[in-house]
Amino acid sequence: MRVTLSNLALFVCATLAAPAPNATTSTQETRSLDEIYEAAVAEGGVVTLWHGGDEKTQQNALKAAFEKRFPKMTLNVTVDLSKYHDGNIDLQLANDNVYVDSVILQTLHDYPRWKKAGALMNYAPLNFDKVYPQFKDADAAYTGLFIIAWGLSANLNKTSAVPTAYEDFIKPEYKDKLILTYPNDDDAVLYQFDIILEKLGMKWFDALLANNPRWVRGTQTPGTILTNANSTSVATFTGSYSFTDRPGASFALPTDAKFVSWPQTGAILKKAPHPEGAKLLHSFMLSDEYQKGNGRWSVREDVPAVEGHHKILEEPNTDAPAFAKWMADRASVERSRFFYEDRIGSAQGLSPLIDNL
């Protein structure tokens, strides 16, 4: 183990210190999906994906859609917190023992350093040319594959209206009825709090704390608990936004401060054991079929917005490219994390992947 950890430390230091390559080459995919499929089946019919998330089942829909479209393929998906996946990818790279094909993570600051280390395959999937330039690497080492965004949500069986502003969450009627993800446990939630405080100030945060929210781990957990009829929790602003309401959950976008959005970004490891399978997966995820049917904003410029909304870069109250810039300043992120931890305490409870919530 000492050798393994030593290798990891050396690798991480090298990725941060290494100069950028002088020249890069990328492969622009010219084959059809069916032609890539044929090559992936010949390779073994398997692709191994590590995907960021906080519930084991979060990518079941992707697995089902991929395997339905390509019935001779098996998509092995492991969901874990991006902040844990990236360290384990570093370990594989440090020990020259890569067994993952594709990584799709929230930790956007990892991709430039992996590229600098020569760990990523420069591959432009089908429709890569249609992805917003702000969401992709110019050399095709990585690209945004879909958009994640936080929104406001409430259970209308327990309250009369969905909050439409962050200011609503400090109203007296929400005392002891809010459920929120620890900002010091998830960088995207941390960023949301930073944005709110920048606009509404510490007075808002103090008032929020006075309302005694319930703090939990994981961004799916608030929504799960909200829908529980036996729960006293009524509303949250630390979960994914949905274009359509669901049983026990209605949604809105805030009007008084920006909401967080970002391109969940993917790359293929250069030494991936199943490169054709990974190419098929990324090309599928940028296809019309997936971009128009996954219930999210698209990373592609040419895909129309969902009715009642704008394309992601035209949404007036969010800045999807800004998240990557914020994530890149790790010193600032750490200062912010410890500020909130000092106020609300360290994250308590089991990992959201095993807490059965």
From TrEMBL:
Q: Which UniProt keywords apply?
A: Signal
Using the record for this protein, list the coiled-coil segments as residue ranges, or answer none.
none
Q: Which residues form the signal peptide?
A: 1-17
Matching entries from Gene3D superfamilies are given as:
Periplasmic binding protein-like II
Name this polypeptide is given: ABC-type Fe3+ transport system
